[in-house]
């Protein structure tokens, strides 16, 4: 094999080094794995078999526990039901008094019988007996099935006097006493009993709930059909098993597990996997007993097949790896030639290497990178052109602010001397507005300066309109010193005044809030709003920048209306893709413009 490798490639090449490294990295771990495999297989097989048996037993435990809890729930219901207890105390005490004794006795028997019949109707089949000390009884089965008075003669009955409160006595497995069940060859039954006590804690009756043992072994047959499962009491007597063959006999092998939940024990020269699981509602426990060979047969067979597969696959994939390494490294040489061509300044060359592996992705990425470089060069050129166009548009709306400011101040003083205070105030607002245009050395100003500018603008517009507009400002203190481009709010406020409120009275709300990464500015008016098609056209015009190209002679960029497209363009040039603008409107309710600005603009290029 080494001679074949030497013929395939000269030494010290990248391809040769990759093949040698791959063979070494596969061969050494494979040899170690095969050597250790047999040593670890036995323990792994045992652990898996124990785990499988425990999981299966837990599943059985869920069903058996639910069945036993169902029996306890019946006793709880009878013990806690106020109507049943009232009747039982009356019957066990003074008895019925008056002329309608027989009717009341019948009605009460009907009530109790109906209740215990109803609570057992939808669940597992069970036999419920309420037996009072004076011999009165109530059942959900007919008398010909079983005479409840015989319960007084049961050997376990005397133990009930030792119970207190809601303690229960589990009778365990006993011969079936119900004639119908005997005819169906259900030979054993399991019961739970509780006492009924009066106010003085004296026992006046008993509740006994009985199910057939086959209801338990049916769970074994349905859930754990591939293993021997038994239900044992606290003395290791078998209460139930799959075929009911040894019910009532002692199961002597639990102690051989030496207190472990799962262990391998020896029974008649054969190993068995024994697993125990205590029940939560009684002192009983579930036990599974499986021949160990049967428990590990499937797992051991899988391990042997895996071992053979490992040896064969190692040899096959070693040869395949050497072939694939040779094929996979071919594109690397081609990528090297493409990189050398690009280094010489040729951006038209492409590798055309495609695939879903790393080399294919690398080749496609290099091609996309070259395409992106060409697109970026074109975009930079276009951005510079758009930037110059936006700057030109701003210059078109600006007149010499110093000249206007000085002239307006002179006129304001003359008007004020003549007593026309309103006109003087209008000129003062206009002067303050123009003052903001004097300092052009900074493209960005603090947000509070921009707010003051729009306040002066609205005040100026109020003086020229018959109906005044109310400007409400709700700005978070954290936003006041954020840097923003100057005059970005004026076109939006102007839009709200002229188009939203239609130069009528109304309210324009300016809100600004801030979070960790950006701050949000919202301009909202309560004007007439827009129809959906008008809103769609405005979004297309503004957000796609279609409004920047105006025909010659159009007054699209007056000082009072720079225009939403220009604002969008300036914001994009200043903030890039981090800036977002949303325009919304609803007919009859108003319009609102939402702008999202990134924070910390230091180091950015500005319009």
UniProtKB/TrEMBL annotation:
Q: Which domain of life is it from?
A: Bacteria
Pfam families per record: dCache_1, HAMP, HATPase_c, His_kinase
Q: Which keywords are on file for this protein? A: ATP-binding, Cell membrane, Kinase, Membrane, Nucleotide-binding, Phosphoprotein, Transferase, Transmembrane, Transmembrane helix, Two-component regulatory system
Q: Where in the cell is it found?
A: Cell membrane
SUPFAM superfamilies xref list: ATPase domain of HSP90 chaperone/DNA topoisomerase II/histidine kinase, HAMP domain-like
Residues passing through the membrane, by range: 306-325
- What membrane topology does the UniProt entry give? Multi-pass membrane protein
Q: Show the InterPro entries listed in the entry.
A: Bact_2-comp_sensor_kinase, dCache_1, HAMP_dom, HATPase_C_sf, HATPase_dom, Sig_transdc_His_kin_internal
HAMP domain location: 326-378
Q: What is this protein called?
A: HAMP domain-containing protein
Species for this entry:
Paenibacillus planticolens
Q: What lineage, starting at the top, does this entry show?
A: Bacteria, Bacillati, Bacillota, Bacilli, Bacillales
